[in-house]
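Progress note, sequence design subtask.
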């Protein structure tokens, strides 16, 4: 038997390598073609006391998907109402995974709800990306969980620095929702940063209330007696609106500081005239003069007949961010989508430039807004 020459063998090997490369390219192209449509679960509080957050988020997400048109990957969303509770959030995730076979999940809004949802998603190894839950612990030890909003250790520090530097506050009180992981986390970060900046917060002026409470006068009378320079309320708009109204009735003259949980049009309906004159950290302001923000505001208002709030902007960013991550993954396989989300850098969103860090949290700016009787007004942007 005659052995082929070295030249012949080299030609055969080269041809075989080329064929394998072509086959690999073809397989890769087929794989990318297969990601034309991806099933995405969406969990939001569409009923309950945080329903405006859920509806705004969904409006923003739908606008993003409409703008994307027929571009691939197409996100086929399956929306589940969590009813604004941890149990409802966990049940929604389990249904989306077991019945709807989604590849990835967007949501929830409230941190306590997202913590419950993330446990179920992590167990099933389905990536969950929250657009709005800020409690620092959400992603800890859970490699399938991520977020595109800032975290409370940043948000609380931003408001503490603002209180000391801009408002010249030397003393403060904190009204904290004892039922909320979100509120407790912000209590801690604000307190630490305010004291580090030279301020004073007495232990008896860290005062708790419950989400079920409707009368906050006992807490507010205690605050009025102490007369701190500032009162920090890291809560949700339903309770905060009532607190502001009752504080005005009691003629409490301290300056009030809030967080993104205030950012709902219902705050102004509940608080009325008492809504005016406060300072709030958030993700977005509809009157920001940035051209991209104003384009988004016009498009959202044309579709929904009202100005967007922070949750609408975050929902919008979530839609485009998720499409970009899935496109980067080139797959609808959950683990590959997870890896793509974790590797996203310098994503240009309406709520700011988003880079995902090693803990799968977003490094991005906050905005501080002031309140009138009817709306939030842009004051300044704070970079991380």
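Output:
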């Amino acid at each position: 038997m005659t052995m082929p020459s070295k030249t012949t063998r080299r030609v055969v090997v080269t041809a075989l390598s080329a064929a394998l490369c072509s086959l690999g390219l073809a397989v890769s192209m087929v794989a990318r073609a297969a990601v034309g449509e991806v099933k995405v679960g969406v969990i939001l509080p569409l009923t309950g006391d945080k329903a405006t957050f859920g509806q705004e988020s969904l409006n923003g997400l739908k606008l993003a998907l409409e703008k994307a048109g027929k571009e691939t990957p197409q996100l086929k969303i399956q929306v589940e109402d969590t009813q604004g509770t941890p149990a409802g959030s966990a049940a929604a995730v389990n249904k989306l995974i077991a019945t709807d076979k989604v590849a990835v999940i967007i949501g929830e809004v409230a941190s306590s709800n997202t913590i419950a949802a993330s446990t179920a998603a992590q167990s099933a190894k389905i990536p969950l990306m929250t657009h709005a839950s800020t409690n620092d612990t959400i992603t800890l030890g859970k490699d399938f969980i991520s977020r595109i909003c800032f975290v409370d250790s940043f948000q609380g520090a931003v408001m503490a620095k603002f209180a000391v530097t801009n408002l010249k506050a030397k003393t403060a009180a904190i009204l904290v929702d004892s039922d909320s992981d979100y509120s407790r986390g912000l209590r801690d970060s604000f307190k630490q940063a305010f004291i580090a900046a030279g301020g004073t917060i007495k232990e008896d002026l860290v005062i708790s209330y419950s989400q079920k409470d409707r009368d906050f006068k006992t807490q507010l009378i205690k605050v009025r007696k102490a007369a701190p320079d500032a009162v920090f309320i890291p809560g949700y708009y339903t309770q905060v609106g009532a607190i502001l109204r009752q504080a005005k009735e009691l003629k409490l003259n301290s300056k009030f500081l809030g967080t993104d949980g205030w950012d709902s049009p219902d705050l102004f309906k509940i608080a009325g005239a008492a809504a005016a004159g406060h300072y709030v950290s958030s993700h977005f302001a509809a009157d920001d003069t940035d051209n991209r923000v104003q384009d988004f505001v016009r498009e959202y208002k044309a579709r929904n007949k009202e100005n967007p709030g922070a949750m609408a902007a975050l929902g919008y960013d979530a839609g485009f961010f998720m499409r970009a991550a899935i496109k980067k993954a080139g797959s609808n396989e959950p683990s590959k989508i997870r890896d793509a989300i974790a590797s996203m850098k310098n994503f240009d969103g309406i709520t700011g430039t988003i880079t995902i860090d090693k803990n799968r949290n977003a490094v991005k700016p906050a905005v501080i807004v002031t309140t009138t009787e009817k709306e939030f007004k842009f004051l300044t942007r704070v970079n991380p």
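The chain has two domains: 34-150+289-364, 153-282. Work on this subtask will continue into the next period as scheduled.
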